[in-house]
Design goal:
Layout: E1 2-5, H1 8-22, E2 25-26, E3 31-33, E4 46-48, E5 52-53, E6 62-64, H2 65-77, H3 81-94, E7 106-108, E8 118-120, E9 123-124, H4 128-145, H5 149-152, H6 154-163, H7 166-171, E10 200-203, H8 204-223, H9 229-246, E11 258-260, E12 265-266, H10 272-279, H11 287-301, H12 309-312, H13 314-321, H14 325-337, H15 354-367, E13 371-373, E14 378-382, E15 391-399, E16 402-409, E17 412-417, E18 424-430, E19 434-440, E20 445-448
Parallel strand pairs: 14-18
Antiparallel strand pairs: 1-15, 2-5, 3-4, 6-7, 8-9, 10-11, 11-12, 13-14, 15-16, 16-17, 17-20, 18-19
Protein name: Linalool dehydratase/isomerase domain-containing protein
């Protein structure tokens, strides 16, 4: 992909992120070390790598479910669709009854379990939100690629079914929300926030990710020729339960963002279990959601700022989702600005793969607002350009069997179909709530203004 813009900063950011992320990719059939970590810097031997990419600490030779889920869109845009599907299959196949339908947390690049995070079927790292995020990313992969494997592969279908069925039943303690144990990461935690020390049974990031998994399952069901209405109802019921019961009536710091194993409601700042609630869209739109977004921005900008840069990489996505392009761009700039500073776990912030992968995705899905629908040969765009960026174009965006270029100016949007044989139906969302739908044949450029 190539970028052009009136803003030199976004060009430098995108080109750095694109080139840096591709350095973390492994072609299938390459050889490399296994089980490299801080305790075993030389690893335990070599293996033949799957099509894959680094998703986790740079000093560990593997890919992690949480990082993979967040890097997924950027990886697709960088031409790593085969790796996305291959890695997703590994996670899906590991979510067995023996593992409580949790996917194994981390894999070596050859597809074996990463030793530092797996000690046995009852003793491995597992976190509730990751189960649901993998289902959500599968649906995104289908929309970006149109690959029927996301719908038809029996291993993936079983995983989706178990994640949104047996997993919730087994770990829901009779309620609608999947629960963690309140113990450490090797016992199964409710939240991605591993550092709070709170014995959480249910968390905002878990319930929010569960909501999106139901929506994803509805779409995947329909793509496979089944009726997705039951999953849409489950999503709507869970969202209603969250807003009317689970999250309380408070706003800002008073909104409930977790429950402990003894039933105490947790408010205040919880990092992931705070910002995932608006990130996944489970909070009803309106003043309460607006107040909570203000709270998230204020906390992350001040006393609640995470020390690890990879936690910050969720913030642009959170604000883009709610049309706050200026705030999202602010966080993208902050993340890029600290890329050469030391990371809390060693190395530099820019050496954490999540940083470049997510910046790539946030330029295309965020600033350009590209929403794919490859199975239907469709795409929509919505400009989120902030003040200071008057023109932005990215060329070579892969969608289905073709590629396109998207450009936003202050008063117009342009789509170029770079394909020789694929047509697209383009929905351009314009300022003032206007929408234009146009057919874009191969080789054509169309402008909506």
């Amino acid at each position: 992909m190539e970028i052009s813009s009136s803003c030199p900063e976004i060009v430098a950011m995108f080109e750095w992120a694109r080139d840096r992320a591709l350095r973390w990719a492994h072609p299938g059939g390459s050889r490399g070390p296994l089980n490299v970590d801080e305790r075993q810097p030389s690893g335990t031997g070599e293996g033949v790598y799957l099509p894959s990419y680094w998703a986790g600490y740079a000093h560990r030779s593997g890919f992690y479910s949480r990082d993979f889920a967040h890097q997924f869109a950027g990886a697709h845009l960088l031409g790593l669709a085969e790796a996305n599907l291959t890695m997703l299959r590994r996670f899906a196949a590991s979510a067995t009854p023996e593992h409580g339908y949790y996917p194994v947390w981390a894999f070596n690049f050859d597809g074996s379990y990463l030793a530092i995070d797996y000690r046995g079927p009852d003793d491995f790292v597992r976190e509730v939100p990751a189960v649901f995020e993998l289902v959500e990313r599968a649906e995104l992969g289908h929309r970006w690629t149109g690959d029927p494997a996301y719908v038809d592969d029996p291993v993936l279908r079983d995983f989706y079914r178990h994640a949104t069925g047996e997993f919730v039943t087994r770990h829901g303690a009779g309620g609608p929300v999947a629960r963690g144990t309140g113990g450490g990461i090797f016992q199964g935690v409710a939240s991605y926030n591993e550092l709070s020390g709170e014995p959480l049974a249910e968390a905002g990031d878990g319930i929010a990710a569960q909501y999106q998994a139901y929506l994803a399952m509805a779409a995947l069901s329909r793509a496979g020729g089944a009726d997705g209405a039951a999953f849409e109802r489950r999503a709507a019921e869970l969202k209603r339960y969250f807003n009317e019961t689970w999250s309380g009536r408070g706003t800002g710091a008073e909104m409930v963002r977790a429950y402990t194993v003894d039933g105490r409601a947790m408010t205040g700042w919880g990092r992931e279990n705070s910002w995932f609630m608006p990130l996944k869209g489970i909070v009803d739109d309106g003043p309460r959601n607006d107040d909570y977004l203000d709270f998230v921005d204020a906390q992350a900008s001040g006393p609640g700022r995470p020390e690890n840069v990879e936690a910050l990489t969720y913030l642009p996505d959170t604000f883009f989702r709610h049309g706050r392009g200026g705030t999202a761009w602010k966080w993208m700039r902050e993340i890029f600005a600290v890329r050469d500073r030391p990371h809390v776990a060693g190395g530099l912030n820019g050496d954490y793969p999540e940083v470049p992968f997510t910046l790539v995705g946030q330029v295309v899905e965020g600033l350009l607002g590209v929403r794919p629908d490859a199975p239907d040969g469709a795409v929509s765009t919505r400009s989120h350009l902030p003040e200071g960026i008057d023109r932005l174009e990215v060329s070579g965006i892969p969608l289905g069997d073709g590629h396109l270029a998207v450009r936003h100016d202050r008063h117009a949007s342009t789509l170029t179909n770079l394909s020789s044989h694929v047509s697209y139906r383009w929905t351009a969302h314009l300022p003032g709530g206007r929408t234009r739908v146009q057919h874009v044949p191969p080789g054509r450029t169309v402008t909506a203004s």
